[in-house]
Amino acid sequence: MPLANLDMDVLRTLAVAMDLGGFAKAADRLGRSQSAVSLQMRKLEDRVGRALFRRQGRGLALTDAGDVVLGYARRILELNDQAVAAARGVSLDGSVRFGVPQDFGDTWLPGVLARFTRVHPSVLLEARVDRTHKLVERVARGGLDLALLWGSPPPRADAVVVRKLPMAWVGRKGHLCAPGEPVPLALFESPCVFRQPGIEALEKAKRSWRLAFTSPSLSGLWAAAAAGLGVTIRTALGLPSSLAILDKSSGLPKLPHTELSLYAKANPSPAVARLREILLDELPGAA
Question: What are phi and psi of 121, to 5 degrees?
């Protein structure tokens, strides 16, 4: 039987799906429909001639054959990326100081850094995960070369809006805020891009509220919301599986959109410019 040629694009979809934990998340990251991603996986199974996925609870897991294909897919993709970079004459060194909000630290950031360092191992990366106002302060001091920031960009020409995303109430699945009772909030202390819009939305809807929990870390807010101590306000990015976006049935008012801005230092080095390119390519959400 003749050997089959595996489609590089399909292998990349497989790797992204396994990194993110599902076809739906992979579809969002890659800008495709979930049905298109599922079709790619079925074609991959046809090409290999083996089942690559099996049911596991409500989701899918890899079969033994799927584990084998995924391992080779990662090696093939790494060689592909290195070959393309070499062919383009990309040989980078130096350093990049990069900052992101806490929403991106656990899910999105590892994949971006891994993709960059595989192709540019000589570049020294310094990544900082922090609250936006802390990143803005560091940008102002010249301490970051590149940074994602919640909210409108600082008043400088080298920061631009790259995404506009809806704010959302976040809490335990099925959480209801009883009419007449103050809405318990789990929020960062000011300054916080999400805090004031949430409070203003409640007051406009004539809903009373109380501050039930504060924390300097996003993981603290997630824990408080998961424990039922209150609801918090973020976007859907980086949402833990223990929490859900609460719809209007929760009794909470609609929230506005927020912006995600990207700062890049003026006249960036080739290493900074390359990381910026990868960052924009990997960034989830719609512009």
Answer: -70, -15
Kindly state the tokens that stand for 23: 């076809």
Cα–Cα distance between 98 and 64 in angstroms, integer? 38
- The helices-and-strands tally (H runs, E runs) of the chain is 9, 12
- CA 101 to each of CA 19, 21, 153, 192, 262: distance values in angstroms, whole numbers, following the listed order: 20, 21, 14, 12, 11
User: Which domains does the chain possess?
Assistant: 8-87 (1.10.10.10), 95-161+260-282 (3.40.190.10), 168-255 (3.40.190.10)
**Helix/strand/coil for 162:** strand
Residue 287 pLDDT exceeds 50: no
Measured between alpha carbons, how far is 187 from 5 in angstroms, rounded to an integer? Answer: 52
For 161, other C-beta atoms within 10 Å of its C-beta total 14
Partners of 101 in the beta sheet?
130
Q: Which two tokens stand for residue 140?
A: 């102002």
Report strand pairing: 257-264 vs 159-166: antiparallel
How far is Cα 39 from Cα 26, in angstroms, rounded to an integer?
A: 13
Q: Is 3 buried (19+), middle (13-18) or exposed (0-12) by CB count in 10 A?
A: exposed
pLDDT in tens, 105-144: 887 888 888 888 877 888 899 999 999 999 989 988 889 9
Task: Output the pTM of the full model.
Answer: 0.70
pLDDT of 259 strictly over 70: yes
Helix (H) or strand (E) holding 129: strand 124-130
| Cα distance between residue 4 and residue 181, in whole Å | 63
